[in-house]
Amino acid sequence: MAHTLMSGNEAVARGAWEAGVAVGVGYPGTPSTEVLENLVRYDHVRCEWAPNEKVAAEVAGGVSLGGKRSLVTMKHVGLNVASDVLYTQAYTGVTGGLVYLVADDPGMHSSQNEQDTRNHAAAAHVPVLEPSDSQESYEFMRLAFEISESFDTPVIVRMTTRVSHGKSLVEGAERMEPEPTPYARRPAKYVMMPGNARVRRGDVADRMARLAGFAEATPVNRVEMRGTSLGVVTSGVVYQYVREALPEASVLKLGMVHPLPMDLILDFSSRVERVAVIEELDPWLSLRLHAAGIELVETGLPVAGELSPAVIGAAFGHGSPEVRAAIPDLPPRPPLMCPGCPHRGVFHGLAAMRAVVTGDIGCYTLAALPPLSAMDSCVCMGASVGMARGMELAASTDRPVVAVIGDSTFAHSGLTGLLHMAYTGSHGTVVVLDNRTTAMTGHQGNPVSGVACDGGPAPEVDLEALCRALGAESVRVVDPHDLGATRTALEEETAAAHLSVIIAKAPCALLIKDPKDPYAVDEELCTKCGACIRLGCPAISKDDDGRAVIDTALCVGCAQCVQVCRFDAIVQVGPSCDIGGV
Ligand SMILES: Cc1ncc(C[n+]2csc(CCOP(=O)(O)OP(=O)(O)O)c2C)c(N)n1
User: Fold this and answer.
1) DSSP character string of 325-392
2) Domain segments of the chain: what residues?
3) pLDDT greater than 70 at residue 311
4) pLDDT in tens, 487-509
5) The ligand 1 atom nearest the CA atom of 405
6) Helix, strand or coil for residue 219?
7) Which fold does the domain 343-511 belong to in CATH?
8) Test site for ligand 1: of 432, 440, 449, most ligand atoms within 8 A of the Cβ
């Protein structure tokens, strides 16, 4: 393959495919999502979205047990969900190579927290490779599968947002077809009850010692000697920043960050006058170098968020490399639900009811922002349901308490929360926002939407039957664009002494191929009351006189605004019609 410009995620997919991966499985999450979306386009590999990362890791583990190579993909918080699997897979080891692609998100571009996957790796006792660009993202996949099989261990390839989404040239090769290992029953290796696990625990320790030896010799840990006044130990995208900001510094670039090549690090440190560790997220390398007795330069670099060449240059008094200044006076562009988003109808009702909304993660989290301001909590996927039960137990408010959760998130980790509510006799209300997709991460299929990883059809779960089977006494489906029906359902179910689920079902506005004719405001009838503005639709704004105006190029004709206008000032117009004299 000639040199091709690829993102890190595209390169991971290419590298895994060339390494002969038989199955790719994961759960979407920025910045990891495009790995599977690209891998699914190749032949000879089966790709599946799992309902959550734990299931994905189990499926990948099963493929490995069956003797074939598998890749499991997730974002950093996904590894919290899958960690129960990983920590014991470290004991069982593998048969076919098993690689975890985990993408961290320093600076939280699209995440609810910052986490450093290296901590999980150390706690689980699994090796970690960390690429710095797309070529390495590609090459490290093959290496990861080789390490996995030769050391009998799952391997983590850790990415960060800039490596996952940044693009650079990749020189690829052909796909290899590794011979599958025939299945053989090996309970001492795979049945982790205490007697077997104790033996495997010793194997894990031996393996980590052997991997530390490997780390000393592998060319992915390399010393680049330049000046001797400063030596920098670094990895991942930060290596690129260091090269740009401190071009004179010698660098120990770590492509394998766990276990560490301590002899190499000590030797490098002895060859330079001062040693600095430059890393994003936790002081992971720093602590280990400190513990090895290496005196480190106090860099004063931030302990949270992303680094950059400018930040690093400034910390070393080298001045900042040229950074393009932000254009002054740009209007702020806060994230908003799209025009015609069905979620808006539910939150409009909840805001009017002054409900306490235990929320969840998805596009709908934006309902926490003004003007809807209709969400009280958002912690992690699935938390809405358990937290609603907790609020019910706290019994500290007279306001209705409602859990709101998206369809993908409900399948991910809301089901068990609902089961808990049923089991404990809750009279709570859960709203499942069924917009027929996993919208937030780019419209991946899920078990509720009945769309497969390749975009083709898949069996669709009967959501109503599922909620009933889990113990909801009342399950009703509403069209969230029908504001009256939605409000009635919310009021009736929150007042009733039973456990209820309201399924707010209408497709994501971005999935609608034939939008309805747009609406416009009759300025003679508009009283400037602001009711339509309070929907928070980006198609509606105020003119200089305070009257509402609808941008007909953005409006998709959902008609929610028509229902809140008490003066009949909002009227449907043709697609390109100017409201003019209406
Ligand atoms: C454990 C975990 N995995 C993945 C993500 C990334 N993520 C955030 S919300 C979401 C799903 C959103 O889909 P859905 O619940 O259907 O809501 P929608 O965006 O469609 O409104 C995903 C995959 C995450 N935050 N946490």
Assistant:
1) PPPTTPPP----PPTT-THHHHHHHHHHTT-EEE--SSGGGGGGSTTT---SB--STTHHHHHHHHHH
2) 3-177+188-217, 221-315, 343-511, 519-572
3) yes
4) 999 999 999 999 999 999 999 99
5) 15
6) coil
7) Rossmann fold (3.40.50)
8) 440
Whose alpha carbon is nearest atom 7 of ligand 1?
Answer: 29
Residue whose Cα lies nearest atom 15 of ligand 1: it is 406
Q: Tell me, what's the pLDDT at 23?
A: 98
CA 246 to ligand 1 center in whole angstroms: 39
CA of 438 to the centre of ligand 1 (A): 7
How far, in Å, CA of 316 to CA of 343, rounded? 48
Nearest to 391 by CA among 342, 444, 429, 334: 429
Please choose from 164, 346, 408 the residue to mutate so as to test ligand 1's pocket, defined by most ligand atoms within 8 A of CB: 408
Q: Give me the CATH code for the 221-315 domain, please.
A: 3.40.50.920
What's the CA gap between 338 and 336, in Å, rounded? 6
Give the whole-angstrom CA distance, residue 78 versus residue 381: 10
CATH topology identical between 3-177+188-217 and 221-315 = yes
> Is 409 within 8 Å of 361 (Cβ atoms)?
yes
**Regarding beta strands 221-224 and 429-434, do their DSSP bridges make them parallel or antiparallel, or are they unpaired?**
unpaired
Going by CA atoms, what residue is nearest to atom 21 of ligand 1?
A: 363
Give the Cα separation of 219 and 129 in Å (integer): 12
How many other CB atoms are there within 10 angstroms of residue 51's CB atom? Answer: 18
In contact, 438 and 424? CB cutoff 8 Å: no
C-alpha 499/C-alpha 521 separation (Å) is 41
Contact between residue 494 and residue 353 where contact means Cβ atoms under 8 Å apart: yes
Distance 378 CA to ligand 1 centre (A): 12
Q: Residue 68 pLDDT more than 50?
A: yes
Q: Write out pLDDT tens, residues 367-424.
A: 999 999 999 999 999 999 999 999 999 999 999 999 999 999 999 999 999 999 999 9
Of 62, 71, 52, the residue nearest 13 (C-alpha): 71
Give whole-number Cα distances, 341 to 105, 184, 464, 501, 511, in Å: 27, 52, 22, 20, 10
Cis, bond preceding 309 (omega within 30 deg of 0): no
The CATH H-level superfamily of 3-177+188-217 is Thiamin diphosphate (ThDP)-binding fold, Pyr/PP domains (3.40.50.970)
Pocket test of ligand 1: the residue of 361, 446, 461 to mutate, having most ligand atoms within 8 Å of its CB, is 361
pLDDT digits (tens, 9 = 90+) for 188-203: 999 999 999 999 999 9
Q: How much distance in Å is there from the Cα of 58 to the middle of ligand 1?
A: 20
At CA 425, angle to CA 424 and CA 427, rounded to 5?
Answer: 125
Q: Distance from the CA of 487 to the center of ligand 1, in angstroms?
A: 25
Rg (the chain; Cα; Å): 27
Supply φ then ψ for residue 423, to 5 degrees: -65, -30
Measured between alpha carbons, how far is 127 from 540 in angstroms, rounded to an integer? 52
Beta pairing, strands 230-235 & 250-254: parallel
- On the question of pLDDT at 580 being above 60, the answer is no
- Locate 510 and state its tokens: 């971005």
505-531: pLDDT as tens digits: 999 999 998 889 999 999 999 999 999
